[in-house]
From TrEMBL:
PANTHER family: GLYCOSYL TRANSFERASE-RELATED, POLYSACCHARIDE DEACETYLASE PDAB-RELATED
Protein name per the record: Polysaccharide deacetylase family sporulation protein PdaB
Pfam families to which the protein is assigned, alphabetical: Polysacc_deac_1
GO CC entries: membrane
Keyword Electron transport attached: no
Gene3D superfamilies (UniProt xref): Glycoside hydrolase/deacetylase (3.20.20.370)
Length: 250
């Protein structure tokens, strides 16, 4: 027995719309799964720095723990590294004023890593402002003034974040080289990831307790940088001495 299906124009149009909708939904979910772009800027508006044109900037995020930060500071001092930028969570800084004082004493630059570890892209504007203001107050109480740099706590941010940071007098800083040390992939992998760094790059490292292998990898990383004759600078020095690069986000 043969069956015949008759589709009128209206039914065909409905099916086509369902297929198109399914395609775009799949595409959206796929794009959401892709790693965020390394940096963003609002068109003709505030920008996030992720790369310069010369020199190299090592940056260290610290959000929690009191074990790993000091050994990293000791290694930097032993290796004669005078310039590095530490992005500190305000809540961590309040709990570890002695370590913050040591970072300042060694002459390293401090940036804000928010106050709590929250994804700024998921927060309303007033909550982002409140988080940054709490961090700002924490550093003020530690007598650390004139901080100009901010890094989103989770590394995720959007145009909303950029505009709020700008209004509060901050520049958002991302990175162009991710060491992935926080995943503890092994010393060799961390070294290999950072070995891709070249002039103008901003390198992401961690000095939180979750990054258990960074201290072992750091001396090798520094030897590689010396071998490439790259000059280490703070992020602020990189911003001041070169044209930084940004990508647009809408």
């Amino acid at each position: 027995m043969n069956f015949f299906y008759v589709l009128n124009g209206k039914s065909l149009k409905q099916i086509l719309l369902v297929v198109i909708a399914a395609f775009f939904t799949s595409w959206f979910l796929y794009m959401e799964s892709i790693v965020h772009l390394p940096a963003f800027s609002a068109k003709d508006g505030p920008k996030a720095v992720y790369k310069g044109e010369k020199d190299l900037a090592l940056t260290f995020n610290i959000g929690w723990g009191d074990v790993k930060a000091e050994p990293i500071l000791d290694i930097l001092k032993k290796e004669g590294v005078k310039s590095a930028t530490f992005f500190l969570a305000g809540s961590w800084a309040e709990r570890h004023p002695d370590l913050v004082a040591k970072i300042v004493k060694e002459g390293y630059e401090i940036g804000i890593l928010g106050y709590d570890y929250e994804d700024y892209t998921e927060l309303e504007e007033h909550k982002i402002r409140r988080d940054l203001a709490k961090a700002q107050e924490a550093f003020r109480k530690l007598n650390i003034k004139d901080i100009k740099l901010v890094r989103a706590p989770t590394g995720h941010f959007d145009q909303k974040t950029l505009k709020i940071a700008e209004r509060m007098g901050y520049t958002v800083v991302h990175w162009s080289i991710d060491s992935k040390d926080w995943t503890n992939p092994g010393v060799e992998v961390i070294v290999e990831n950072v070995s891709k760094a070249k002039k103008g790059d901003i390198v992401l490292l961690h000095a939180s307790d979750s990054a258990k292998q960074t201290a072992k990898a750091l001396p090798i990383i520094l030897d590689d940088i010396k071998g490439k004759s790259l000059k280490l600078v703070t992020v602020s020095e990189m911003i001041a001495n070169a044209d930084t690069k940004t990508n647009e986000i809408k």
